[in-house]
Structure formats: C-alpha cells, structure tokens
Amino acid sequence: MKPSLALSGGANFTRNFWGKYHTSFKRRFSVPSYRLNPIVTMATGSGSLVWFRKGLRVHDNPALEYASKGSQFLYPVFVIDPHYMELDPSAFSPGSSRSGVNRIRFLLESLKDLDSSLKKLGSRLLVLKGEPGEVLVRCLQEWKVKRLCFEYDTDPYYQALDVRVKEYASSTGVEVFSPVSHTLFNPADIIEKNGGKPPLSYQSFVKIAGEPSCATSELVMSYSSLPPIGEVGNLGISEVQTLEELGYREDEIAEWTPFRGGESEALQRLTKSISDKAWVANFEKPKGDPSAFLKPATTVLSPYLKFGCLSSRYFYQCLKNIYKDVKKHTSPPVSLLGQLLWREFFYTTAFGTPNFDKMKGNRICKQIPWNEDHAMLAAWRDGKTGYPWIDAIMVQLLKWGWMHHLARHCVACFLTRGDLFIHWEQGRDVFERLLIDSDWAINNGNWMWLSCSSFFYQYNRIYSPISFGKKYDPDGKYIRHFLPVLKDMPKQYIYEPWTAPLSVQTKAKCIVGKDYPKPMVLHDTASKECKRKMGETYALNKKKEGKVDDEDLKNLRRKLQEDGHEEPTKIRNQRQKLN
C-alpha cells in the first residue's frame, strides 16, 4: 500500500521501492534493530500516541486529528534525537555534528510553541530523549495504546526508521496511521503515474501531478479541546529543554538568526505576506534583491515549511484564494505557488532516486572529477575567499542560518563550477548543517542543479562574484553589515577592495592581505578553467552514456592535468598579480 491517508501508509511500498538502498542506508546511519521481548504484550488500551517529528503544528495535522478521534487518552510525543541534537565541540561552528545551533534553536522554539498550543487544549508535549525507534517501542510497551499516528516522511533516515517502528506496532496489534501531509502530493503517486520513475523536469512534474487533492479539501485548522494524557509511567519525560539544558552556551553566539521558530510565528508571517495581494500576484522568482537583509525580499516561510510549523496545504489554499480575487497573477514556475511546486518536484525526484544525496551511484547525476582542496573549502565556508560579495553571504549563513535564494546560487556556483571546482557534496554538507531551512531533498537537488550535475546543464552561465551583487547593492550596504572590516571602504572598491590604492585601504582601516584576505583565485582565470573542465567532463559523460566509473574519472583527471587544464597551484600563484 502506498503512503496516503490510509492505515500503515508506505511500509510495503517503501520496502519494495528502495530494496538494497534501505540496507545500505541502515548501515550508514547505524539504525539499531530493536530487541523485542520474546513475550509480546498486545495493545489493550483506548489511547493514541501521536509522534511529532516534522509537522510541528496543530492546524491541518491529520495525524493529530486521527489520533484524537475516539481516544480516551492522547500521548503527544517528541523525541530529542542525539543523532541530530547532541553537542559536538569538534564541529566547525556551534551545534551538533548534524546541525548548527541556529536550527536547533529554531526547533526548540517550535517545540515550545507547540507545547503551549497543546496546553491550551488540555494536553501537552511529552518530550523524551534517545534513539527515536527505541524510545517509541518503550512508549508503546508502557502505554498500551491502540493506535500510533505520525506524519509520513520521505527522508531516507525516517524511511528506514519508520519501517521498523511500524513492524513492531503491527506485531503488537497497534493500528498505524501515517498520512501524507508534509507535501501537497504523495510522491509515490506521481512516480506511479510516470511509469515507475520520477519526472526529471519541473514541466513534466507539473503536467503529471495536476492539482493536489487538498485544493478542495476542508482542512481542520483548530480544536476546542484534546483528550487528556493518561498515566505516563517512568519513561524520563520532560518539558521542552532549553539550549543550555542541552549543553549549549548562548553567550558564545555573537549574533542569532532574526527568525523565530513555531507555528504561531509561521501563521503570523504567512498572514503578513499574503495581506499584500498585489505582491503575491506579481511575485516572480528569480527576481528579488539578494542583498536585502533588514527586510528580506521573500516570505522567509521556508524554515516553517521545513519543520511543518506551516502546512504547505494551507499555504496552497491561501494562494489559490488570492489568485481568485485578482485580475492577473504570475504562474508557475516563477509564481509563489510555483515555488511550492518546486518543493514538490524535488521531494518526488529525491524519493524516487536511490543515492540522491551522492554523485556516485546516482543515475541522474553527472560524474565530474571535482578537486579536493580542504583549505579552499574552509575559506569558502568561513567567508574568507577575498571576494566580499561571496564572503558576506557565507557570514550571513553562519550567523543567521539563512540567505536569499539568489545569494545561495552565487556561493554554490563559486564553490563548484564557477571558480573553485570543489565537489557539490562538500558544499551541500555546509548548507545542510547551517541552514535553518535545510531540507534533505531540496538541498541535494539544488546543489546538483547549481553545480550543473543534474537538472540544469548550461555550465557556461556563471555568477560573477563581483558584478552580480553590485547591480543590486552598488553602495555595498549588505557587505558592510556582514563584513564590518570593510565598512569604511569607498563604494567604488567595496566589491574589489584589492584594487584600492594602499592610501585608500589605510584610510579605510582595512589593508588587503592583512585585515581582509586577498582573492583566493582570479575569477576570470578560474572560471575559464572550470568551463574547460566541465566541457571535457560533459563530453565524457555523453560518450559513456552516463556510465562513467571511477577509472574513467581517474583517467579524465590525468588528462586534464596533462592538457594543463588542472593547475590549482598555478591559479593560486596568480594572486601574486594582485600585490
């Protein structure tokens, strides 16, 4: 049975669809098998357990709605997963091994808000800590609930986890309800309509998908009350913890993201965004100012959609209602509704593509002999490339956990096919850790797109690290905010401070090479080199019909070296010209 608003959604389809991919994924993430008691106690209670992971909201939450119906007791549970939340002092920025502290803080704020909403309805959030599967098994054993409800999740980590939890629940007679509500469409349905494969272009996806069923559905937006919590036993239940209680020190963070987590904030931000009907009707991506930071040029609803603080289905309905009230509006792919459909496209493609988060073994990803340069990667990550536009964007990411989509395009292009020719997976890892809206499917899809590894193949179109930002912000206000070392640099030099005479640098209290780094590469030289490499790589992929193996990449790398197309040392030495 495919995942839907039906019982035990997704288990059988997932096992059949992923096959060996599941096995390799479980090895990679070490998802433990549960040691079940030889004597299995069958569910006898009249309660329901609703397991929150994403979907951190009350409005339009089918799992919560179903769990509350006809239940004497309701157990709303969230599990603090050490895999995601545990402090890692060795990480390059404050946070866990998987997430920067901004996203952890956003999550805790979202949980606090959810807990507050539940308390107003006569319930509360039961917070436990541990490996989620093991914790859920203990809860089911202790509470003897009759049903387990949680939102269906297409991420591989949860796919593997959910199969095990469902199998245990079914073995004890617990009814499992796992509805698709994080997305507008069921990815499995789209793949089935497309003959068993995900559509690989936005246009084909939109054509196959049609209109989602939620377009005309009546969504449950609120409750007068919820069933009370029954006896919880001794399972180590706590309130929502603070950052300090998780081991983090807030005073170590120089600047926090201005975006607060939670359903209440999500609905307020949505209301404010759609109150300007003309803005909604005329929204056209990729237009927008990537340098606008005091008042971002977008809705900044992506982190709320990522955590499910905002229902994408409710957002969709709101947009459709506005479009009915205006004479003219933009259309997908550039409209605001079109952005929701981009999200659906990447979710579907990711769900139907084994190894979607890798170059190797990924049938839709071009095989490219990317460079290995940890020093250059670290300089890019830390905002020390010597290009103020690129560095300001990366500092905003480090401090806020968010930046405009065009800013993301610029730094991703610079790292990969534009200048440094470093593997998109390494850039993806930095974004995955630091973005508050980091989303497995969308993040991987966008990095493949922007590196011209998949979806988009015009590798000669490169974002300039100098002129692109200048056309939006000629005075460099964005750079001055995030790179205060350059705050006194005259505007004619703000994007290229190395061109300023030494007297100007001295007056601005910023000597290039001392107070701010020299450019790590010459853009004109580096971009030409990247284009050559991409051209030869595309030719090889075409010749081999996409079946490029490790030996092919090794030979191509050697050829590029022999032809003089791969000379990182020479490129670094070009910086001497800037002295």
TrEMBL record:
<dbReference type="Pfam" id="PF00875">
    <property type="entry name" value="DNA_photolyase"/>
</dbReference>
<feature type="compositionally biased region" description="Basic and acidic residues">
    <location>
        <begin position="559"/>
        <end position="570"/>
    </location>
</feature>
<dbReference type="Pfam" id="PF03441">
    <property type="entry name" value="FAD_binding_7"/>
</dbReference>
<dbReference type="InterPro" id="IPR014729">
    <property type="entry name" value="Rossmann-like_a/b/a_fold"/>
</dbReference>
<dbReference type="InterPro" id="IPR036155">
    <property type="entry name" value="Crypto/Photolyase_N_sf"/>
</dbReference>
<keyword id="KW-0285">Flavoprotein</keyword>
<dbReference type="InterPro" id="IPR005101">
    <property type="entry name" value="Cryptochr/Photolyase_FAD-bd"/>
</dbReference>
<feature type="domain" description="Photolyase/cryptochrome alpha/beta">
    <location>
        <begin position="46"/>
        <end position="184"/>
    </location>
</feature>
<dbReference type="InterPro" id="IPR002081">
    <property type="entry name" value="Cryptochrome/DNA_photolyase_1"/>
</dbReference>
<protein>
    <submittedName>
        <fullName>(6-4)DNA photolyase-like</fullName>
    </submittedName>
</protein>
<keyword id="KW-0274">FAD</keyword>
<comment type="similarity">
    <text>Belongs to the DNA photolyase class-1 family.</text>
</comment>
<feature type="region of interest" description="Disordered">
    <location>
        <begin position="559"/>
        <end position="579"/>
    </location>
</feature>
<dbReference type="InterPro" id="IPR036134">
    <property type="entry name" value="Crypto/Photolyase_FAD-like_sf"/>
</dbReference>
<dbReference type="InterPro" id="IPR006050">
    <property type="entry name" value="DNA_photolyase_N"/>
</dbReference>
